[in-house]
Automatic annotation (TrEMBL):
Any matching Pfam family: RhoGAP
Record-given protein name: Rho GTPase activating protein 26
Chain ranges of the PH domain: 225-329
UniProt keyword annotations, A-Z: GTPase activation, SH3 domain
Superkingdom of the organism of origin: Eukaryota
SUPFAM superfamilies, sorted: BAR/IMD domain-like, GTPase activation domain, GAP, PH domain-like, SH3-domain
GO molecular-function terms, A-Z: GTPase activator activity
Compositionally biased tracts (Polar residues): 524-533, 555-572
A GO-annotated cellular component: cytoplasm
Domain SH3 residue range list: 585-643
Amino acid sequence: MGLPALEFSDCYLDSPQFRERLKSHEAELDKTNKFIKELIKDGKALVQALKSKFPADGRETSLQVAAPSSRELQDTRRARIIQKPTAPEAKKKYDKETEKYCGVLEKHLSLSAKKKEAHLHEADNQVDNVRQHFYEVSLEYVFKVQEVQERKMFDFVEPLLAFLQGLFTYYHHGYELAKDFNHFKTDLTISIQNTRNRFESTRSEVESLMRKMKENPHEHKSISQHLMEGYLFVLEKRSFVSTWVKYYCTYHREPKRVTMVLFDPKSGGKMGEEESFILKSCTRRKTDSIEKRFCFDVEAMDRPGVITMQALSEEDRRLWMEAMDGREPVVAQLDVIGFNVIKKFIYAVETRGIDEQGLYRIAGVNSKVQKLLSLTMDPKTCADVELDSPEWEIKTITSAIKHYLRVLPAPLMTYQYQRSFIKAAKMDNPETRVTEIHTLVHRLPEKNRQMLELLVNHLANVASHHHQNLMTIANLGVVFGPTLLRPQEETVAAIMDIKFQNIVVEILIEHHERIFQHVPNSADGPNNMLSNQSRRRSTESKAPSCSERPLTLFHTPTHSQKGMNTNEGEQMSHSDSLSFHLSSVSGRKAIALYACKAEHESELSFIAGTVFMNVHASREPGWLEGTLDGRKGLIPENYVEFL
């Protein structure tokens, strides 16, 4: 009847085209059943008419002749029953398993990558079992449809032929008619026998192929060198929410064209409009950059932005990436490429946007940052990147610098010396603190020290424009402290040390010329530094001055900065919690931890150990109000400790 063939391998793809072919076979079966019903109805009418035509004479003969015709009609009805009931039951089972498999698959793909590995492994095994069962049901249903299609050619035609044979002999001129019909009957009999023989010979082979595909489905999946197709979930960003939408995607390698068709088997197989684009690049998505698993990003030549897609499994993602010539995400190293990239970024920032407000505080779009790093870190494309182009915003470049430092295998100031830097920042004497950090910097590996010098000199230049960009040394410390001195393990102690990470970066920026341009004296080792006088003796031996003031630990944004975004690892949760604590305090006593000399008439000068009365929160961010010797004034909130 010209129907398209149903291949068992299509059961594993479950493509929209396969579903359409399956529907056409089902429609043909329905059409055949309707035709059989009409034929049986017309045959009964014909037999009834013949009986009524000869009511008296020949009554016995006519009934005897008509009897086999009725039996052949019953055989025809049985032929219809053979093909009809079995197919709907198989179809019902197939539709039920389709809905179950799609539901389990979506639930599985929505699992967070942060789940325990054992839980994820168990979920993977469960979805594999459901998928395997769905494939088996699909294969059995296709086998059943093909069997019914072939069987109807003889199970229906053969009783029909017998009915016609009996009908012709019923007529008065039955002999003449049978003689004229004899050549057709002979040909039809031979054709039926050939069809039956062909069915019997091919049925065993088809059944054997089905069993092989059940046992080893991966060996029989059709993988083309020029075509890749299957279901993918695409991340679509809408007004207020992002959703994952299921598409059937096809990729042709030669023109690099990707075609996406919105299709969901659970919704009755309704196809949406076809979308297509020319592939530009494909990059595997790191698990730590997105909560979903099996994701990768693609860029198109003829449409803007990055398209995030989710494969059905790790193996499925591997096949898609191989087909699209995908590449791995950027791996940062302290090599020639890394130094050249950072120098190029720094030059662009200092020439294009060093006065831009919120520099390094405002985060760039993650997809653009990843794209910029991928292009600049790739030797094949780095020369083609023009940072003067409007495509690359300053916030994208600054975020790329931070991301590069964040994805290094180890922090720039190394895990080895991380605790030493924190310990140095906790020292009481400011001069000892700077000297110890100076010594530790020159103990870093050569490449780490060179990159740190390059970065800190740039940050000092940024801080010198703080009147325009609002990025003071303290703000830069908050931004880069957790990145340059990130701990090897996240612990409560590491969280409490975030403020000292910021202090280290502030000291590096404020004393960058001394630290990087002068080699420390070997006599000023850590043992000698620790033998200095205590905090109280050092602060009381001379008048307090601004040079002894510890660097600001936190920075509370002003009204002009409240709208700025913060990037990963740059949140000041400790400062926020401390500010909240202080806002709830009123009229308490506090003791000074450090000496401070007032730089404004509204501030108070004091030495370490001074006790303040009636200390409460101030309207000025980062400051408290207190009373000392009957005089009210401002006190830096991180200089005191409540009693």
